[in-house]
Amino acid sequence: MRIVESEGALARAGLSERPVAVLDLDAFDANLEDLARRAAGTPIRLASKSLRVRSLLERALSHPAFSGILAYTLPEALWLVGHGLGDIVVAYPTVDRGALRQLVTAPKVAGSITLMVDETSQLDLILDATADLRSRAGARIRVAIELDVSYSPLPGLRFGAYRSPVRGPQQAVSLAREIAARPALELVGLMAYEGHIAGVTDSSSTPYGVAVRAMKALSRPDVAARRTEAVAAVREVADLEFVNGGGTGSIESTGAEPAVTEIAAGSGLIGPGLFDGYRGFRPQPALHLGFPVVRRPAPGVATLLGGGWIASGAPGADRLPTITAPRGLSFAPQEAAGEVQTPVLGAAADDLRVGDTVWLRHAKAGEPAEHVSSYVLIRGAGNEADPITVDSVVDTYRGEGRVFL
């Protein structure tokens, strides 16, 4: 297993401290190519929350299939523009008045960032926060409308995240007209994220898995129809530069819609644990987290320091890390992955000694970067001709002193 084989390279590079986050560049680059293949020519906007490492953002954006960034906060977008990156869409509405004032003080910055909106109160807040600066700056504030495409086949039944209140063409046009009535704002885009398709695992053979696959099949035509109708209606009000949709889990179906001009993706570069549960694609696991064994409390048990890096979302077993190596280990049912200690059970635990490393994969792609200041990048095939070596050590956002939420 490559991550186990990399331990020698880490030791030779003097990287013995644990925990450690190791990113396999060969797997990352293979995932880049696979996302490009799946997109089949539709540009991919890189979701920064799935990486949170500036050097990896730059690496992905150097690939011709990727164009622009989908950021998650306005301060993050401003920081990225300050480091030479551009064409940034902030995926979530902002109420950060200080960041809004910073946005409008430089026309070049304002022209590089698009804000997300879904109701008029957000428009008014943006204008109120920047009222005394806009006349001097002379730049219009770029905004995009988020269209909600969650699936509601019956009253009271809903699949998808609670995002925008804009659910159809009429609501989208109404908001577009409100934007047009405010000369300081410029409507340039529309986004619709089908999270119930892109973000829900579907490979299980259980009744739940069958139901998820049926839900996805039924909802795809509904998403495509509402997105197409809304885009056509809004284009009567504004000349949209982009229509963004999808995610790593829905690249093929999203890219097949003529109304969509770009696809959002990022997690597929990392191949986190949640993606083990998808049928249509399987990215290579690129990011591995090494935790030290600090106790051996009983036969068949080894205890790690930390390990409880639980993924956000509804609590459940799918939010736990995946144990990668040694094979044959499982979490203790009463403790699972803990904040300060994590017992792992199984025959393989008897071969572990204090100071050894157990490797985990996080359930989500970008969240580990909030726990560590750096990623160790490795590469190599792991054979005599091309041994695994440490390529470099790069800062995460946290390592650069940036925490954006």
Please explain how this structure is put together.
Helices cover 30% and strands 24% of the residues. With 405 residues, it is of the alpha/beta class. A hairpin with a 2-residue loop joins strand 12 (287-298) and strand 13. Helix 5 crosses helix 7 and helix 8 crosses helix 10. The longest helix has 29 residues, at 207-235. The two termini are 35 Å apart. The mean pLDDT is 94.
Features:
globular
Helix content: 25-40%
The helix-and-strand class reads: alpha/beta
State the shape. Answer: globular
The Rg value, from CA coordinates, equals 23 Å
Reading the helices and strands in chain order gives HEHEHEHEHHEHEEEHEHHEHEEEEEEEEE
Count the DSSP helices.
Answer: 11
Largest sheet: 9 strands, mixed
User: How many beta-strand elements?
Assistant: 19
Please report which band the strand proportion falls in: under 5%, 5-15%, 15-25%, 25-35%, 35-45% or over 45%.
15-25%
> Ends: how far apart?
35 Å
Taking all residues together, what is the mean pLDDT?
Answer: 94
- Detail the poorly predicted runs: none
In short:
The chain has 405 residues and is an alpha/beta fold. Helices cover 30% and strands 24% of the residues.
